[in-house]
Amino acid sequence: MSIVELHNVRKAYDTKIAVHGLSFKIEPGTMFGLLGPNGSGKTSSIRMMIGITVPDSGTVSLFGQPFDRSQLIRVGYLPEERGLYKKMNVLDQLVFLGQLHGLDAATAKKRSLIWCERMEITEAIPKKTEELSKGMQQKIQFIASLLHEPDLIIMDEPFSGLDPVNATLLQDTLVDLRKEGKAVLFSTHRMDQVEKLCDEIALIANGHLLLSGSMREVKSTYPRNRVQVVFEGSDAFLKHPAIEEAKNYSGHAEIKLAPSSDLAAASNAVLAEALTGARISRFEVMEPTLEEIFIERVTAQNAANANANGVAHV
Amino acid sequence: MSSVQPSFFHNTWLIAKREYVERIRAKSFIVMTVLIPALMGGLTFAMNYATGKNAKSDVNLAIVTQDSRFGLDLQQELAKHKHPKITANVLSPQGGGADTRLTLEGELKSKDLDGYLWVTPPVSEHAAPTFEWKTRARGYINTQNELSESIRTVLTRQGLAHTGMGANDVEALMQPIDLDASVASKDSASSGEAVAFGLFFIMYFVILFYGMNVARSIIEEKTSRIFEVLLATIRPEEMMAGKVLGVGSVGLTQVGIWLLGAIALSAPGLISLGDDFAFHITARQGIFFVVFFFLGYTLYSGMAAALGAMTSSEQELQQMNIFLMLPLIACSGVVFTVVSDPSGTVAKVFSFIPFCTPLIMYVRIAVSQPPWYEIAISIAGLVLTIAAILWFAARIYRVGILMYGKKPNLPELLRWLKYS
C-alpha cells in the first residue's frame, strides 16, 4: 500500500499551469525527496496532497484510499514559511495545533514537553513565539507537525534557516522516523541533503516530472564520467584530452570526462598522467552528483521550452 | 464521511476558543474595556454638568403686562418653582411699550436679566392674551416649560374664578399633582430614547470594531502563513466560523462588562448620577439587543472576512473598509429621524434594508412597538442576507486566503466564487 499516490494530477491557476499530469508514489518507510527549482510546482503538488487545493484533474490517494479529509489526521505538514501565531506562548501554541490534529489537551501537552526536550528548546517553552530566533521557531513548527505521530510527514524546505548543528538534529530525527516506518516527503533545493538522506526522488520543473525513482536507479542511468581528484603539485594533467571539462579549486579538482565507450580506460589514463607531476591523495570515479543531474535536466528542459515557444511564435 | 461532521464543531470550537482566550488576555482588550466607558462616561458627565449648570441656576426674569393682577398671580406661581428658582418682576409697558422693550434688551445684554415675558392683551373679550418669551441665552429655553405651565395655571385659575367659583374651591382644584408629574409618560419616553441611542452607538461601534478585527486577524494569519498549517487539517469554513464566533464573543464579553458596570454604577446607594441619568434597560430592550447584535455582528464580520481574504495588507484593507462603514454611517445618519418618528417612512424603509436592519429595527423596537410581522420580516430578510454573505465569504476565503500580493479584480472574484 502506497502512503501517497498521485496519478496524472493537473492544477492550473489563472495565468499558468502549475502542475502537468504529475504521477508518483511514496511507500512506507521511505524518505522521498521532491526536487525542483523555484516555482516548479513543488508546493502546488504538496498542497493538493493535503487538500488545501483540489486538483483540476487526476487523483490523489492517501494510505491506499482516495483522498478524504478525515485522513489528514495522519499527516504532519511543515510549510515552507513559518506559520505560527507570533503573540502566542509556545506551549499553548503546540497544544492548540496538537488538538487540531485530534489530540486531547493533556496528551498534546505531554508530547510537546517531550519533543521540546528532544529538540533542545526547553528554555523556549514559556516564551512568546515572536521572542524566539528563526531557528527556534523552525523547531517549534517541526514539533507541531509531528505531535500527533503522523504516518506521512510532509516537510517543505525543512532545513532552511537552520545552522548545521540544528539541521543535523532535524535530519537525524527524520531518519529515526523513517526507521519507525513513517513515510517522509521533503522538498528542498539542497541537493547534498537529498543525496545523503533520500531513498527516492522526484525531480520536477515547470510542473513536469523530469525524473523519478530510487536514488540508485536515477544515478545508474548516468555514466560514471565524473572524477574527483585531491592532489598536490602540477595541475597539468587537467589538460588531458580525455577530459571534457575540469574545475580546479586549489588542489581539489572536479573533472568531467569526454563521452567515450570506455570511461574506465579514460579515467585510468587521466590518473596515469596526474601521477607524473602531482601527488594524489584521492582519486574517485563516480556518477554525476545529484546537483549536476538537477542542473543538467532543468537546463535542458528550459531550452526545450524556449524552443517550443519559439516555434509557437513563428 | 461520518467523522467529518462532528469535527466541524470541534475544530470551530478550538479556533473560536483560541481566538477568544488570546484576545481576552491581550492588554489592548483590558485597556479598551476600561478606557472607552471612562471616556464616554466622562464626556456624558461633563455635558450633563455643563447643561445642568445652566438649567439649574436661578432665573431672573421680567413680566411685562398691562394686567397687573395677572402679572402678580404669575409672579407668585413662578416663585413656587425650586429647580430652577425663578424670580420675576412685574412691569407695565411704558411709552407704548417701545421704551420698556429698549430697557429690557439693555438689561439682557448686561446680563442683569435672563429673559422677559411680553404679554399682549387679548384683542377681544373671549380671546386669550398672547405671550412672547425672549431669553439671553439658549440655556434659558428650558425655563419655557416652567413658564408655560405657570401661565396655564394662572389663566385657568382666573377662568374658574370668572365662572363664579369660590377662591377656596379654585385653590383646591389647582393643587399641584406631584405624583402624576414624576411618572408622566413623557419622562420615561425620553429616558427610553436615551437608552436607545446609547445601545445604538454601542452596537454600532462594537459591530464595526470587531468586524474590522475579524478582517485584521485574517490578514495577520495570511501574512504569518499560519492558515497554511491550519488548512492542512481543517476546512476554510471551520476557520472562518471559528474566527467570527471567537471574535464576536469577545465583543459580547466587552459589552456585557460595560452593561454590568453601568447597572452596578446606577444601582441605588453606589454612585448617584441623578434622576435624569438613570439607565433603565427593559428586558425587551436587552433581549432584542442581544438578538440584533448577534445578527448584525455576523453579517458585518462575514463581510469583513471576505474583505480580509481578498486583501493582503492592512493598507489595502483600509481602502476596502468603506464597504463596511458606508451602511453603518447611513444608519447613524437617519437614527435621529427614526427615534423621533419610529413608525415613519424613513424608519420603515431603513429597517427593511438588511444592512441597516440590526441597528434601525433595533432602535425602532427600543423606542416604540412596531407590529410583530414587521419585526419578523426584517429578521427573516437579515438572516437570508447573512446566509448569502457567509456563503460568499467562505468561497472568497477558500481561494483568497491562498493568494498574496495582488488585489483581485472583479472577473477574478467571480471566478473565485466558482472554485470549490
TrEMBL record, chain A:
Looking up InterPro entries in the UniProt record yields: AAA+_ATPase, ABC_transporter-like_ATP-bd, ABC_transporter-like_CS, ABC_transporter_ATP-binding, DrrA1/2-like_C, P-loop_NTPase
GO MF terms held by the record: ATP binding; ATP hydrolysis activity
Q: Which UniProt keywords apply?
A: ATP-binding, Nucleotide-binding, Transport
Q: Which residues form the ABC transporter domain?
A: 4-231
Pfam families given in the database record: ABC_tran (PF00005), DrrA1-3_C (PF13732)
Report the SMART domains cross-referenced here. AAA
* Protein name, per record: ABC-2 type transport system ATP-binding protein
Q: Which organism is it from?
A: Granulicella aggregans
UniProtKB/TrEMBL annotation, chain B:
Provide the ABC-2 type transporter transmembrane domain boundaries: 27-394
Which InterPro entries does the protein's record reference? ABC-2_transporter_component, ABC2_TM
Keyword DNA repair assigned: no
* Source domain of life: Bacteria
Q: How does the record classify its membrane topology?
A: Multi-pass membrane protein
Q: Which GO terms describe its cellular component?
A: plasma membrane
* Major localization class: membrane
For this chain, one GO molecular function annotation is: ABC-type transporter activity
Keywords (alphabetical) are: Cell membrane, Membrane, Transmembrane, Transmembrane helix
Where exactly are the transmembrane stretches of this chain? 28-50, 194-215, 244-267, 287-310, 322-339, 345-363, 375-394
Q: Where in the cell is it found?
A: Cell membrane
Task: State the protein's name.
Answer: ABC-2 type transport system permease protein
Q: What is the lineage of its organism?
A: Bacteria, Pseudomonadati, Acidobacteriota, Terriglobia, Terriglobales
